[in-house]
């Protein structure tokens, strides 16, 4: 009898287990259905927004054309009136009035432009590059003057030594190296190798020259330290943000160097121009030439791009020094905008998947905490809509790793915080 009771209890347990499995299956189907509905809603919303923007652009172009037509008619009428008056005053010397200068007509909209870069991001990119180029042109006398070579070397030493030592080993260590850099920009004297001292005030162009030099040096850390060690991005990012608050032009110059290394950070998929060789085009998207004038290998290029996007993402979520003030200069919404625009531009094999994955791994925790369901919808859109588009161009390892990462995030409904993020008020 005891054995029969045990068998009966065992059978009851099996039946309950089967019922639980059926309930889990039904729950899974319901979740899949909800995700599909989310995806469809997002797609419809994006289509409506795109249609609205197209209609607004069409109305704007019509208004611009009407304005140009009216201006042209007014110019022609004025020219005819001037001709008539001249003919009455000097009938023997009648000459045809000069053709009025036509208004500059903007080029027709490129139907593929929206797949390369959003107009707002393109304007932001052009403004940043324009400021950078103006600074570069301005410091050429200092950069090329042979008699100032020793001074330039001293400036480089004053920046490189503390910048290379930046790390999060302790708040005191990070603060000391920042202080060395900032005191130089504040005009404090710095010793050079021959025992003499220099200051940034010794030449009127030195401040802009050193700002360019420091921004370039920070970006170069993405190639060396950060591409191999993601955690190294955060102490550099904290110092960058602190300088950005204190010297606003520095932040823009830093972005210019970042965009020159990787226009995908805009995000801007620069199209290949007619007559441009493959080598010339690859250089426009960040590929480098070796000393032997050979194009670098794709795996080396991809590693550099990984370091660049890690530093960019770290700057977005890292706070600066408390004493520098509370103002935020590059907030979390920059990461949200980047993801939203990145999934709308033309996918590029390997690089698109790599950059999205690095952004999600670095920013995902903060984006999920701040945007909640909207961020979930964006992840579903990337998985269901963007990934099939990417698969048409890319079957490499980065795409597969991004697929696995998205599936893990959506399955577990959580994203871990990136390792190495500095706590608020670290220094």
Set out the fold topology.
Elements: H1 2-89, H2 119-138, H3 140-144, H4 149-164, H5 171-185, E1 190-191, E2 197-198, H6 206-226, H7 233-246, H8 248-261, H9 278-284, H10 298-317, H11 333-342, H12 351-371, H13 373-391, H14 397-412
Biased composition (Basic and acidic residues): 48-79
Function: Required for the export of mRNAs containing poly(A) tails from the nucleus into the cytoplasm. May be involved in the terminal step of the mRNA transport through the nuclear pore complex (NPC).
Biased composition (Low complexity): 80-100
Brief digest:
One of its GO terms (biological process) is poly(A)+ mRNA export from nucleus. This protein is an all-alpha fold. 67% of the residues lie in helices and 1% in strands.
What coarse outline follows from CA principal-axis ratios?
globular
Query: How much helical structure, as a percent, in the residues?
Result: 55-70%
Strand residue content: under 5%
At the fold tier of CATH, the topology name of the largest domain is: Serine Threonine Protein Phosphatase 5, Tetratricopeptide repeat
Order of helices and strands: HHHHHEEHHHHHHHHH
Count of discrete domains: 2
Q: State the CATH superfamily name of the largest domain.
A: GLE1-like
How many helices? 14
């Amino acid at each position: 009898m005891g054995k029969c009771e045990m068998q009966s209890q065992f059978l009851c347990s099996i039946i309950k287990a089967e019922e639980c499995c059926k309930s889990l299956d039904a729950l899974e189907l319901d979740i899949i259905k909800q995700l599909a509905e989310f995806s469809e809603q997002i797609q419809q919303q994006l289509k409506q927004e795109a249609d609205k923007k197209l209609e607004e652009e069409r109305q704007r172009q019509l208004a611009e054309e009407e304005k140009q037509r009216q201006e042209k008619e007014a110019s022609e009428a004025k020219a005819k009136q001037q001709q008539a008056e001249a003919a009455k005053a000097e009938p023997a010397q009648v000459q045809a009035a000069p053709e009025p200068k036509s208004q500059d007509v903007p080029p027709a909209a490129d139907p593929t432009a929206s797949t390369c870069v959003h107009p707002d991001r393109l304007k932001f990119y052009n403004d940043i590059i324009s400021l950078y180029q103006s600074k570069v042109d301005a410091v050429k006398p200092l950069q090329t003057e042979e008699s100032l070579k020793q001074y330039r070397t001293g400036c480089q030493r004053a920046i490189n030594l503390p910048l290379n030592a930046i790390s999060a080993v302790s708040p005191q260590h990070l603060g000391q190296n920042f202080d060395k850099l900032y005191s130089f920009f504040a005009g404090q004297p710095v010793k050079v190798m021959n025992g003499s001292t220099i200051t940034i005030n010794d030449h009127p162009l030195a401040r802009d020259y050193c700002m360019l030099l420091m921004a370039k040096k920070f970006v170069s850390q993405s190639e060396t330290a950060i591409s191999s060690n993601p955690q190294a991005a955060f102490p550099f990012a904290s110092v960058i943000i602190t300088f950005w608050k204190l010297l606003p032009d520095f932040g823009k110059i830093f972005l210019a160097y970042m965009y020159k290394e990787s226009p995908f950070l805009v995000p801007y998929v620069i199209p290949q121009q007619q007559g441009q060789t493959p080598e010339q085009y690859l250089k426009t998207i960040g590929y480098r030439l070796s000393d032997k004038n050979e194009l670098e290998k794709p795996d080396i290029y991809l590693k550099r791009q990984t370091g660049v996007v890690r530093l960019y993402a770290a700057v977005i979520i890292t706070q600066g020094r408390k004493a520098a003030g509370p103002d935020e200069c590059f907030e979390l919404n920059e990461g949200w905008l980047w993801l939203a625009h990145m999934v709308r531009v033309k996918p590029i094999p390997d690089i698109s998947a790599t950059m999205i994955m690095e952004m999600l791994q670095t920013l995902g925790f903060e984006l999920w905490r701040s945007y909640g369901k909207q961020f979930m919808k964006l992840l579903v859109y990337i998985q269901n809509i963007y990934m099939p588009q990417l698969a048409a161009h890319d079957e490499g390892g980065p795409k597969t790793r991004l697929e696995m990462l998205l599936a893990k995030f959506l399955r577990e409904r959580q994203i871990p915080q990136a390792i190495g993020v500095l706590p608020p008020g670290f220094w």
